[in-house]
Write a structure and sequence with these properties.
Length: about 550
């Protein structure tokens, strides 16, 4: 029996004129692992929420959904709650209790499970997920990776037949992402859990998957095995695929389309690469400096900044990477004055930061927070942008131009909270860039953003640095950092390692590095680098 059957599904949100899903049909076999891809706003999250009855949005639905042979409408609340598990993008919003052990027990307690069985079930899950060391910790102090593992473990307490995941790794650092996906693969292979995972970054999951569904503008454009679908992708859509697959397409290589880094290394085993020249770094007096910066939230807590040093020059883009909980967001909040350091100093344009007070933003500082919804207070995106222009004395036409630059002009009439995570991120960036800042601080700017929109962001940031804007980005998106930053540094144990030119940084790393660097043994780290590739007797010059 099929786990899930979807036939002719269309859906239009209440108050909307156009459907977000149109005539979608597919089914999932027991124990299958399916990846769901598509641009921001293509309908991925809507589809997942329609499958999870309790999360179904309001609107007009056509077609049918059935779970384990039973129409979705006929499922009782208990049947739906236990048959379908859902892991969202923001784990903090899904955790409902104050302690790890209590979160694991919550599902069983709600179902009236007998105490002896409940204790055994909780211990079993905690052991399987490696939670022994933090089993009794408060949930509020967990890292992002631990929170997402806890969310997954808690959902598994209901023993669902189908597990839905909506961008579950978009907020995780590369190491935490690998741990989460490894556990997910084990659940699928060892426990037979059927998985449907929506993602913008398929590089780590396609090798695990049996099937790939690709949505475009609410329609199911591709449906097949990952290898078949990736091999059939047209040139103009390659940006959404993993680096290993793009290289195969760009070099027009024979053999099967590769999906994993292991296959990519085998594909390029006989290739040789000429290392490119390093990026020319902007010079001149720094516009932003942090000297011996120290900060901790409590006297007994570990320092998030421990005599940290940082310099940022006009026209330079500096990327800071590091694990969840390493202090990246805290660093940005210190640099824009939202937090006060315990010791050390911060200079903006040669002047101590605290001397600016509320005038800092008028002097050219801009900040994109990790939760961009906080920037919006108006009924529509367009009204928000126009109000910002009015307050700042900016020509209103600049709002339309900026929306077009980032490809969000079609969202101007939408309410900000009705947007997908990626769409909201782009609209927030449009609002920030209207300010034409001297220093731009970005917290995970590509989180939840599809590949093509990410490239629009990259182009906008390149134009800013060419005009002299200094950019500091903290990010888990290493591919994005490799394509945009002049220098990169790793934040760990309160200290920022001396930032290196981007190519040197990624080519010398083993864990915090790009897929291209892994495939080429560190010879090439950035996809927009011109390199020379020798394959057999052929010499090819390729720009990826």
């Amino acid at each position: 029996m099929e786990i899930l059957n979807v036939r002719g599904l269309s859906f239009t949100y209440r108050g909307a004129s156009e459907p977000v899903l149109q005539n979608i049909s597919f089914s999932l076999a027991p124990g299958s692992f399916t990846v769901l891809m598509g641009d921001s706003g293509s309908g991925k999250s809507t589809l997942l929420r329609l499958i999870k009855k309790e999360l179904s949005p309001e609107g007009a639905k056509k077609g049918s959904l059935s779970l384990l042979g039973k129409p979705m409408e006929e499922l009782t609340a208990r049947e739906s709650a236990f048959a379908v598990g859902f892991v969202a993008q923001k784990p903090a919003e899904q955790i409902v209790t104050d302690r790890v052990w209590h979160e694991l027990a919550f599902t069983g307690e709600s179902a009236g499970m007998e105490d002896t069985l409940l204790r055994r079930r909780v211990g079993e899950i905690a052991s399987y997920f490696g939670m022994g060391e933090w089993f009794r910790k408060p949930t509020e102090i967990l890292s992002g990776g631990q929170m997402q593992l806890l969310t997954l473990a808690s959902v598994m307490g209901a023993e669902p037949a189908l597990l839905l995941l909506d961008e579950p790794t978009s907020r995780l650092d590369p190491v935490a992402e690998g741990e989460f996906l490894s556990l997910l693969e084990r659940l699928n292979r060892e426990m037979g859990i059927t998985v449907l995972l929506a993602t913008h970054d398929p590089s780590r999951v396609l090798g695990m998957a049996d099937r790939l569904l690709y949505l475009e503008a609410g329609t199911l454009l591709y449906d097949g095995t990952p290898r078949e679908v990736c091999a059939a992708f047209p040139e103009e859509k390659l940006a959404v695929l993993p680096a290993v697959t793009r290289v195969w397409h760009k070099l027009s290589l024979a053999g099967e389309c590769p999906l994993t880094l292991r296959e990519g290394r085998a594909m390029l085993a006989k290739a040789a690469f000429r290392k490119p020249a390093e990026t020319v770094l902007p010079q001149g007096e720094p516009i932003l400096q942090a000297d011996a910066l120290c900060f901790r939230f409590a006297r007994e807590s570990a320092p998030l900044c421990d005599r940290l040093h940082l310099t940022l020059h006009p026209g330079e883009h500096l990327a800071v990477v590091g694990g969840n909980g390493s202090g990246k967001t805290t660093l940005l909040r210190l640099l824009c004055g939202f937090l006060k350091p315990v010791a050390g100093k911060i200079l903006f344009a040669g002047k101590p930061l605290q001397k600016y007070g509320g005038e800092l933003w008028r002097h050219g500082m801009a900040y994109l927070p990790q939760e961009p919804a906080a920037l919006f207070g108006e009924e529509t995106v367009g009204e928000e942008l126009l109000l910002y222009c009015k307050k700042q004395g900016i020509d209103p036409s600049a709002a339309t131009e900026m929306a077009a630059t980032l490809g969000v002009e079609h969202l101007l009439s939408r309410h900000p909270l009705d947007l997908s995570g990626g769409e909201l991120q782009l609209c927030a960036l449009a609002r920030i860039l209207l300010q034409e800042p001297k220093v731009l601080l970005l917290d995970e700017p590509t989180k939840g953003v599809d590949a093509r929109a990410t490239h629009r962001i990259e182009e906008a940031l390149h134009r800013l640095t060419e005009k002299g804007t200094a950019i500091l980005t903290v990010t888990h998106d290493l591919e994005f950092a490799s394509r945009t930053a002049h220098r990169c540094g790793l934040l760990f144990d309160g200290v920022l390692s001396e930032p290196q030119p981007t190519e040197r940084f990624f080519c010398s790393n083993r864990f915090y590095t790009t897929d291209l660097a892994r495939m080429t043994s560190g010879a090439c780290a950035s996809e927009n680098t011109l390199y020379q590739c020798f394959i057999g007797k052929e010499t090819r010059h390729v720009t990826l």
